[in-house]
Amino acid sequence: MERYNIIDCGASDKNFILNLNKKNLPAVSVLDDDLFNMFLKYSEYFKIIKIEDTPVGFLIALLPGNPYESINYKWFENRYKSFIYVDRIVISSDYQDKGIGSFFYDHIKLSFHDRLNSMVCEINLIPKNAQSINFHKKYGFTEVGQQYTDQRKKLVSMQLLSF
Known about the structure:
Number of helices: 5
Helix content: 25-40%
CATH architecture: 3-Layer(aba) Sandwich
Strand content: 25-35%
Order of helices and strands: EHHEEHEHEHEE
Radius of gyration: 15 Å
């Protein structure tokens, strides 16, 4: 049986994070050195998941009130007071569809249920990210809005999961 282990991300994990993120474009947004460093400084939850000793994914999430200029983060910040915003969850292709995303989300809920009301994120509708749409629906998220980003090249579904 495989053993999952969630650990804090550190500066030494930068290459793993940047490379895995790049392999998953355009399902996730670009991540560069500056943004990685900003996430290290301000993210309430920046974790890597390992199976045995192999890193296979990461999740970055922030609380409201951080100096993050993402239009999607700001959308939630302007509408909700108590949430953790999942900026991105990325799992290596060899380990997708094995419950790792649910394991991460269960860990967030366990970590924050006594302090927050909800977990929020956005899902790409254009270009369509069917895997993410299906995962979030199955997990219990509901759509609370939509918005265009990137000069109307992307349409995202704003999703909320109440605790």
